[in-house]
Write a structure and sequence with these properties.
The structure holds 2 protein chains of 2 kinds. By secondary structure, chain A is an all-alpha fold. Chain A has helices spanning 10-49, 55-59, 73-104, 107-121, 125-140, 145-170, 173-181, 186-197, 199-214, 241-249, 254-288. Chain B has one domain (51-312): MetI-like (MetI-like fold). Chain B is built from 12 helices and 2 strands. Chain B has a two-stranded antiparallel sheet with strand order 1-2. The chains are: A mainly alpha, B mainly alpha.
């Protein structure tokens, strides 16, 4: 291009065009490389995991070391219990926090709170495990399902808070004004008019947050701990799918590796189901509005 | 629905402000938990590591020794491992992520955009432990038998690519982390690129620029700061990645020049050794590693927020 800065020759023009085409090709390849891992992961989950999924997998407990067979029934139920406990902790805090941001907070306070929520969102999940270990495991002298649920629940708070705020802001101001003008108390306006209008969006945010934490392993390592048997008391350790997958994956037994793949396939299926239900819900929302 | 009865239910008894005030308090308290949680996390980790802070002082940060038998602990190999694996991941993920974001905003046919975006969102939903499982049984054998052999053959004159190949290694960790932070880097970069005004592009095209020249002159230079923010945000994620890294990095506390050598990160040593820490000092040292990890990730995240905020004006970019 140095040859003639003002009047490009045909050769220069051809070079520039070729360069542009080359970059286009590179960008296409990059995009391919980025989505390739998704298909590779799903492909191998299906290939390695599908054959190991049978009735036993869903109904039986893990077998002791060295014995073939067994299943992850307790881990599947444990994951669901942990998610339920996490929701009990994280959803009210998140939703009310979101209500504060959307309905009460001053601009300045909100800026700080959003900033804090984003910072909190970036706290590594393993750190949550350590903190909850000190808060709930050390004082009660036992690993417990409660501790696992709280660790996951605290991770949900900033997620639910931000999505709740976003959907509440979308509720038209005139709804609030109309209700307030009728003399309705502000808290009733918020709960009965604003939150109800945005309920689907809030539920979407909650499900997205649940999908995010469903696969978390690190916060459970020293809170829920894992358990090879049924959990009959939430004050005791509980099994969870991600924990079981981890334990089996790093074990030296082929049969356990096989089950780790099966567990991973089930966990992935659960997470995809949560994500797809969100898509279906938000499609309905778009249709009605 | 009978409108009249609903309305009369909603009407307040005159003069009762108490529920209103209580409700506002409830909402404020919930919002405050965010701040309380940040303080709580920091304070708990500090409280948990007091003993090792008192014993080792600042030397903890640059001591290389990690010897539970003699009760001597130093963080340097883990800090090294965390930084190197995260930087490797950035080196791979930032060019790929930005290129994909460029492809999605500037080039891809409309029909293709939504499916690719969906695939990237699904990639973000894959749990760390599943990447780890896939890493152990699929990625590592492939790296060991093909990519690493090839790298050693062609670039073996560099100290980075020398030494025995085990499979589990710093480089394998970097690659796995790269895959895991690609979705966030791509989606934030896409937001940034979309915020570049079309006028920029049109002006460049009007001057006769080719497509690549438009991207370079009008789009990338305009978005540079924001893209840097996206990369920093990716770094924040990379530093804290635990499970997948633990499963592929080899878990050996050493500082090696070769990327084929096993390493260890802050997060993975905590995951591995926390439950079996036998002495109080051991446990305290692990908490101090957690404190170091927290401090670094919070600083990095704050930096990223500041960069992204200045790029997009007041509108916050949604991060998750």
């Amino acid at each position: 291009m140095e040859a003639s800065p003002y009047l490009p020759t045909a050769a220069v023009a051809r070079f520039r065009k070729a360069k542009s085409t080359a970059v286009t090709v590179v960008l296409v390849i990059c995009a391919g490389l980025v989505i390739a891992p998704l298909f590779l992961v799903i492909y191998f989950l299906l290939v390695q995991g599908w054959s190991s999924i049978d009735l036993n997998f869903f109904t039986q407990l893990p077998k002791p070391t060295g014995e073939m067979g067994g299943g992850m029934a307790n881990a599947i139920v444990g994951t669901i219990e942990l998610l339920a406990m996490a929701a009990v902790v994280g959803v009210p805090l998140g939703i009310f926090g979101g209500i504060y941001l959307a309905e009460y907070g001053s601009d300045r306070a909100n800026d700080w709170l959003r900033f804090a929520a984003d910072v909190l969102n970036g706290v590594p999940s393993i750190v949550w495990g350590m903190v909850v270990y000190l808060m709930l495991v050390v004082p009660f002298k036992t690993f417990s399902a409660y501790a696992g649920g709280v660790a996951l629940g605290l991770m949900m708070v900033p997620l639910v808070m931000r999505t709740t705020e976003e959907v509440l802001i979308l509720v038209p101001q005139s709804y609030r004004e109309a209700a307030l003008a009728l003399g309705v108390a502000r808290w009733k306006v918020i709960m009965v008019i604003v939150v109800r209008t945005a309920l689907k969006g809030i539920a979407t945010g909650v499900i997205v947050a649940l999908a995010r934490i469903a696969g978390e392993t690190a916060p459970l390592l020293f809170t829920a701990l894992g358990n090879n048997f049924w959990n009959h008391n939430l004050k005791e350790p509980i099994a969870a799918l991600p924990l079981q997958i981890f334990a089996y994956a790093i074990s030296p037994y082929d049969d356990w590796h096989r089950q780790a793949w099966a567990g991973a396939l089930v966990l992935m299926g659960l997470i995809l189901a949560l994500n797809i239900s969100v898509r279906v819900m938000s499609r309905d929302r778009n249709r009605t509005h | 629905m009978s409108q009249a009865s609903t309305t009369s239910e909603l009407l307040p008894e005159p003069g009762s402000r108490a529920p209103d005030i209580a409700f506002k308090w409830l909402a404020s308290l919930a919002a405050m938990t965010i701040v309380v949680l940040i303080v709580l996390v920091g304070w708990q980790l500090y409280a948990g590591s007091r003993m090792s802070i008192a014993k080792f002082g600042a030397g903890f940060l640059w001591s290389q020794e990690w010897d539970p038998v003699q009760d001597k602990y130093g963080a340097l190999p883990f800090i090294f491992g965390t930084l190197v694996s995260s930087l490797l991941a950035l080196l791979i993920a930032v060019p790929l992520g930005v290129a994909t974001a460029l492809f999605l905003t500037e080039l891809a046919p409309m029909k293709l955009r939504q499916p690719i975006i969906m695939a990237i969102e699904m990639l973000a939903a894959v749990p760390s432990v599943i990447f780890g499982l896939w890493g152990i049984f699929i990625l590592i054998p492939w790296l060991r038998d093909h990519l690493f052999v090839w790298l050693k053959h062609t670039l073996g004159f560099l100290p980075l690519f020398q030494g025995p190949i085990y499979g589990v290694s710093m480089l394998a960790a970097g690659i796995i982390i790269a895959i895991m932070i690609l979705p966030i880097i791509t989606s934030i970069s896409r937001e940034i690129l979309r915020s570049v005004p079309n006028l920029q592009r049109e002006a460049a095209y009007a001057l006769g620029a080719t497509r690549w020249e438009v991207l370079k002159i009008a789009v990338l230079s305009y978005a540079r700061r924001g893209l840097f923010g996206a990369a920093i945000l990716g770094l924040g994620r990379a530093l804290g990645e635990t499970m997948a890294v633990t499963m592929v990095i080899g878990n050996r506390p050493q500082i090696a020049a070769s990327l084929f050598a096993p390493g260890y990160t802050l997060a993975s040593v905590i995951a591995n050794e926390f439950a079996e820490a036998t002495s109080d000092l051991y446990l305290n040292s692990l908490f101090e590693l957690g404190l170091v990890l927290l401090a670094v990730t919070i600083c990095v995240n704050i930096l990223a927020q500041i960069m992204l905020k200045s790029m997009t004006g007041s509108g916050p970019i949604k991060v998750n």
